[in-house]
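Purpose: get a first structural picture of the assembly so the mutagenesis plan has something to point at.
Setup: two entries, given in the order below. No constraints added.
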Amino acid sequence: MQELMEKLAVFLSWTMTLVLCLCLFIFLSYLLIKGLPSLGAELIFGKAEPLRVLLGHDRVFDGIFPAMIGTFFLVILSAMLALPVGVCSGIYLAEYANPGMKKLFGGLFDILAGIPSIVIGLFGFSLSIFLHNHFSDRFGPCLLISSLSLAVLVIPYIVRSTQMSLEELPSNIRRTALALGATRLQNIAYVLIPNALSGISSGLFLAIGRCAEDTAVILLTGVVAMAGVPSSLLSQYEALPFYIYYISSQYSNPAELSNGYGACLVLLGICAVLFMFAYGLKKHLSYRMLYRV
Amino acid sequence: MNNAKEIIAKNVFFLSAVASAVMILAIFGFMIALGIPLFKAGNFLAIWTGPWAPHEGLYGIWPMISGTLWIALLATALCLPLSLGTSFVITSLGSPRLCKMLGTLVRFMTGIPTVIYGFVGIFLLVPLVREGIGGPGMCVLTAGMVLAILISPTMILFFTNSLLSVDVSYVQAAKALGANRVQRLLYVMVPRATGGMAAGIILALGRALGDTLIALMLAGNAIQAPHALLEPARTLTAHIALVKAADFDSLEFRSIFVCGIVLYLFATAATVAVRLILRKREVPT
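Result (structure tokens, whole complex):
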């Protein structure tokens, strides 16, 4: 009887693994079959001349170029906002905080990491309305608000990766410079941070990947379907994930739909590369970063 | 001079930690503040459990809460056997090469954007469900199935980690007593990893509750509490995404903040539960 149960467990385990792999295989091959034919310059630039678009002479109306640029700006801005704050918080937690503080902040960052992205989007949205009502009419859902909200979304990743890669450093690295007379700050700036760099950049890549793929936050904070290349921080913009979402419900002809598949492949490529980069840099760490609670 | 630098640096580090921590409270505060008009306008209890009937002035979010629970619980239930099986294969049953490949695959899955799952779901799974099983196609079942795939890497990685962090000496003792790979897994590793595995389930459930795009694209978004798998439903997250700010002062619009509060509390409860479980078990993850 027991032996039978064991055999059954093994059989079911293999079946389940197979089912999962099969689902993924169908998913990816469907995407490739539908998306590969549309990949090419026309997907990105539409009917416009690529060189003229890049120089800013022409606008693209039927390609994903504006969405790619929007996502690019979004990612860069959010990373610029989240990186300094996140790294500094991580340094504080790893090097300065006493155990009680560590526990308190650790708990708060875990909660922040668990908050659904749409709630953070809602926060950004209310912030834009608050700014609109109390400061200037020029504020509204825009690129800046979106980047700010995305920065809030990914700060926990950066804090954790910084904290953990600092805490992981062995004590001989940690103490040598101090013994030679370096101050605490010098030790952090010249010894600890350079040694923890791969862990920190692993967190950064994860954060960027999250910014590039997230749709819920930008949905509420200023992404629109037809905005062209954003002209300022306070203007609305397009983004790749939103483009895919928009096409899925609003496509009007097969060409647009096939552009949607192409956009899926482009986004998947970008995110896969970023995530694999993050894991490659620090394999063990990223597990813990994502799933330590 | 150096001393001043030290102190400034320390304070900068401390202040950034405080600033990012304050965000969590600020998010909650904003939602409470903006949701207050709805609380004041009606029966407090009716907001949570009442029906959604804007024309009669009723803004109960129960249909959305119910839709969220249906979809998230279904996804977790579907995901559980998949993740158990896969983590068993990764930790004990497979050959080293296969385990490595599966590990890479699972980590690759964490990088697949949600919106792409939704996109493929709409054009591949929805017609299949509509023609194969019946109903409108966009329903609780479709969203639950796609969501199960989406949250499976979370569960698998957590399961694998807790199984592998069981003390080696236990496993070796069982090996010395003649237990084979399957027996070591089922009678030694699994019982000792239950805490970590429970944490993984809660965490995956938390992700399922908080996901927006899958339900928004695949569940049909009808405002009614679902009673069967083939009925459409609207989740709290989708409700937030769908209510447009036509009139900022309308009570209908304010209801999205109540949805936000519920989601926030769900997520926080999941996080706290996971922390409590892990602290008790001391499972290094």
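Residues 2-41 of chain B form the longest helix (40 residues).
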